[in-house]
Amino acid sequence: MTTVLPPAPLNRPRTLMVGTAFVTSAALMFFGCLFAIYFSIRSDTLAWGMEWFPENAISLVPGGMNMATLTISVATMGWSVYAVKNDDRIHAYLALILTALMGVAMINQTVFYYMDIGLPIDHSEAALLLYVITGAHLVMVGVGVFWLGLLLLRAFGGQDTSRHRDLVSAASLYWYAMVFIYIFIWLFIYIGK
Amino acid sequence: MKNESTVVERIVTTTDSGTLSRYWIFSALIGLLFSSVAGLLVSLERIDLSSGSIFSTTDEVFQFWAAHRVALVLIAVLPLMIGLATAIVPRQMGASRLVFPRVSAFSFWVWLFGALIIIIGFLANGGVGTPEATSETQSVALTLMGVLLTVIGLCGASISALTTIVAGRVPGMSLLEIPAFSWSVLVAGTMWLATLPVLAANTVLIYADLKGRAPVNFGSEQVIWEQLSWAFTHPQIYLWVLPLLGIVAEIISVVFKNKISNPFLFAAIGLMGLAGFGAYAQTYFDIGTPVFEEAFSIIQAFIAIPAVLLVIAFISPKIKDIKEFDKRATTPTVLATLSIILLLHGVVVGAVHVIGPLELATRSTVTAQIVLTLGSGVLAFMAAFSWWGELLIGKPIRQQKILISGVIIHCGVGIFAVADFLVGFTGQNDFTGLSEFTAGTKSSSWGDALNIASLIGSSLIVLGAITAIGVCIKQVLSKTPATGNPWDANTLEWAPKEKEEVA
């Protein structure tokens, strides 16, 4: 006779974190591939004595500003997790709104830079890779901002509490990964050129 | 409260893992048929290497040749494995459903949409580029979009299954105590998540270059396939069929009533997972000096052999308990054995074809290896369908019919692979095109005979796919109720399950 076992309890606290960790790993592999192609082709191009990006095409200022914005957003994201953990709803709202605003600012800044850069996407392999890598990262920021928007709606409904903070923790993991990827963009595309 | 949803609403919005599993499996079988027919047409074309038999241009042949591979991986074998995991993993974990049921449902529909786009893209003179660049650019872009969507769908479904294993297990069950199939899904799913995003990155790069302007490099039709081909060849294809090892271990351990020691078997499956990582084998990646690169490739090629042998070594001692063999389980045991035999041949051919002096790296041997490996995955699915069929469709399985269609597919794969392996030694290219020049060899009685054998193999594969679809449909439509636990197995997936939908 077969024993009937009770089903495992649903909505375990770790599931969202684990799921987000898998999503984040997939995103890291996606960017890892793009960077590997970038480095490989850049190395070959320079070895042939050819130019990678045209002189003065890449400005450090927008990249640096974006890096600073995202670095601050890491702190505000951590603040929101801390606030939710302590059932401090006012600070949670404030931190989530600030983080989302910084994400929007980063998107705005990058789009402005795209309009200003004067480097068409079909100029060279370097230009194409620049737009694909930063564009894909922009999509990642957009998803993060959307996620924060959902969190805010839940927070206004009183659903993000110290007992149900899994979604905020998962969003923070995603956000940190997004900033981590931007460090490479800043270092190798904007600074390393 | 009365449920007033229509049939269409119920079909589209279901989050039940059993139902989603059936969707995956049925759609993947249709994909298998599409892929097999494309392969059959290419085999037909190869009978006369000196001129076109059914295609008029080399590019037409290339599109069907590439469609065969892309569909076999993304529309047939991978979704078959995902379909099995969707139904079986939550049961084996003691969970009533997958932990992210809506993600699973969304993933299926995204994948299905992507699969349809891929098929339409290939039929609309698109595909993944062509050697003479005569495809419709918009259709190529459409196919690439389909590839991206299928990859997103497969990643989503993998994440749902993986999270169920990692965080949705019944309390008290450690990772080393999970059943072999779930372990193989854990290893395979992790490696799929490490490689499918790489394929997505390649696709996005090509798409961005291709769309709306003259391509810089990545989007040039002649190089698109070169950039994507790593995902459809050795060693990456081992990853696509990795759950096979878990399926075989599960069946053998129950039919011989002898539990397999987990840690060593799990390590061997993990080793196979590592051996299958093929995302590094891309056009643009240079991993070091030629000597290092050569050594790395050879290690990668040969590591798969000990991995498969280790799995067989852990499974085979159970077969000595032949007196314990449950004769009712003849079909799943035979199919599981045939599938692992095909896989072993696949890894051996894979290792042989990278040996430099043999010059087989671009010959028909490549096709032999791909068909052997992916064919082993299809056979493993049939073994699993025969084994877990009652859980998958809730009806008793007619074992004899499954066995017949499985044996047809096995014979087809075997004949096709032997012919292609041998004809590779005559210098015949992997892609033969429409002339003796592109085929790499001249028409000869020996080569022609092998190409005819290959055609017979392809025909048998198509016949096997049709019979498999027919058998599955017939079983689903059967009115006989399931018996519950046909093998008297005591593993968790056979425990009665409460059906649960997400509100």
Structural commentary:
The complex is a heterodimer of chains A (193) and B (503). Chain A has 193 residues and is mainly alpha-helical. Chain A has a domain at 61-191: Up-down Bundle (Four Helix Bundle (Hemerythrin (Met), subunit A)), CATH 1.20.120. Chain A has five helices and no strands. Chain A has helices spanning 15-47, 60-85, 89-117, 125-156, 166-191. The longest helix of chain A has 33 residues, at 15-47. The radius of gyration of chain A is 20 Å and the shape is globular. The termini of chain A are far apart. Chain B is an all-alpha fold and 503 residues long. Chain B has one domain (10-494): Cytochrome c oxidase-like, subunit I domain (Cytochrome C Oxidase, Chain A, Up-down Bundle). Helix content of chain B is 67%, strand content 0%. Chain B is built from 16 helices and no strands. In chain B, α4 packs antiparallel against α5. The longest helix of chain B has 35 residues, at 58-92. The radius of gyration of chain B is 22 Å and the shape is globular. Chains A and B meet through α1 and α4 of A and α5 and α6 of B.
Briefly characterize the structure.
The complex is a heterodimer of chains A (about 190) and B (about 500). Helices cover about 75% and strands about 0% of the residues of chain A.
The SSE string of chain B, one letter per element, is HHHHHHHHHHHHHHHH
Quickly count the helices of chain A: 5
Strand pairing plus helix content of chain B: what structural class?
mainly alpha
The run of helices and strands of chain A is HHHHH
> How many beta strands in the DSSP annotation of chain B?
0
Globally, the shape of chain B reads globular
In percent, how much strand structure appears in the residues of chain A? under 5%
What is the overall pLDDT average of chain B? 88
Backbone CA Rg of chain B? 22 Å
CATH architecture of the domain at 61-191 in chain A: Up-down Bundle
